[in-house]
Design goal:
Elements: E1 5-12, E2 15-21, H1 31-39, E3 47-52, E4 61-67, E5 72-73, H2 77-91, E6 95-100, E7 103-109, E8 115-118, E9 144-145, E10 153-154, E11 157-160, E12 164-169, H3 179-187, E13 197-205, E14 208-215, E15 219-221, H4 225-237, E16 244-249, E17 256-262, E18 269-273, E19 276-283, E20 290-296, H5 297-300
Parallel strand pairs: 2-3, 4-6, 12-13, 14-16
Antiparallel strand pairs: 1-2, 1-19, 3-4, 4-5, 6-7, 7-8, 8-18, 9-10, 11-12, 13-14, 14-15, 16-17, 17-18, 19-20
């Protein structure tokens, strides 16, 4: 099957997302297509969110998520907000339930245009994150980079938010670290058998944290929703903040914030933030060859 499908270039706080409509088709966006799309500056992306027909009763769609290197991702909070905005514009609905390989996600679009996604419960068990070594307390694991007596980064909090995360706490501006150099080393560290998302996090007040993320399978990214959730949860878990914080995404363009609440009554993590449509077109999900429909955000305003 080679007929093209509709897709939209969108972003969540600058996190570059391609939302691809695969409903009514049995095939998937191929890893080769993802690599081809990412190689083109106009369609370069952090994640592809491929919308498929629902597989589970009571859900609106199954979302297949691909990283820019063609690998699979289990979760993408910023991408989920983009899917909600796209489907809300199409259907007029405001509430959605999605299935991913990481589980069920519930989401709602608010009147002000922001979107909340229930990202589920965080996972702290070492073998479910997963980590290669057993740690009784994963809020601080033994891992460092740099000289033994003066490491550049050390003792991260580890957890899964549908995908594995390591949060390194730093005392200065997160943009002052060479994450482009450290990121790939840490992502592929033997400690993480399924690789990991690497986030630098600085607590700036009892209710705010600034982050910067190297995404597994995508590299440096302008924003990462599941990393923001992981940083918020880890900050509360280690006593650095309370359970509701503002995440300032340092690398977002324009700078932006996410509101994260780690709910006390059920331990679910609720992420609220914006999504933005940029332009639309059609793509062959097998090859990645695409064409624009000629509209752009500026033309639509």
């Amino acid at each position: 099957m080679s007929a093209t499908v509709e897709f939209a270039r969108m972003n969540g706080l600058g996190n570059k997302i391609l939302v691809v409509d695969m409903r009514g088709r049995p095939d998937k966006v191929t890893p080769a297509a993802a690599v081809t799309l990412n190689a083109d500056p106009q369609t370069e992306f952090d994640q592809i969110m491929a919308i498929h027909d629902p597989k589970a009763e009571g859900t609106d769609a199954f979302i297949d998520i691909l990283n820019s290197d063609g690998s699979k991702a289990q979760a993408c909070g910023n991408g989920t907000r983009c899917v909600v905005q796209a489907l809300a514009a199409e259907t007029g609905r405001k509430v959605f339930t999605f299935q991913t390989v990481a589980g069920i996600l519930n989401a709602v679009e608010h009147e002000d245009g922001t979107i909340s996604v229930d990202m589920g419960r965080p996972v702290f068990d070492w073998d479910r994150i997963p980590l290669a070594e057993e740690f009784h307390d994963t809020s601080r694991i033994e891992l460092q980079i740099g000289p033994i007596d003066k490491p550049v980064l050390h003792s991260p909090s580890a957890m899964s938010m549908g995908n594995p995360h390591a949060i390194f706490w730093v005392d200065r501006d997160v943009m002052s670290y060479d994450l482009a150099r450290f990121g790939p080393l840490l992502e592929n560290h033997p400690m993480f058998p399924e690789r990991a998302n690497i986030t630098l996090a600085q607590v700036t007040s009892p209710t705010s944290v600034t982050t910067r993320t190297w995404e597994r399978g995508a590299g440096l990214t302008l924003a990462c929703g599941s990393a923001a959730c992981s940083a918020a949860v880890s900050a509360a878990r280690t006593g650095r903040t309370g359970r509701k914080v503002t995440i300032n995404v340092a690398s977002a363009k324009p700078p932006g914030v996410l509101s994260i609440e780690w709910r006390e009554h059920d331990d679910h993590v609720i992420m609220t933030g914006p999504a933005e449509w940029e332009w639309s077109g059609r793509v062959d999900p097998s090859t990645g060859l695409w064409s624009s429909d000629g509209t752009r955000e500026a033309e639509a305003q």
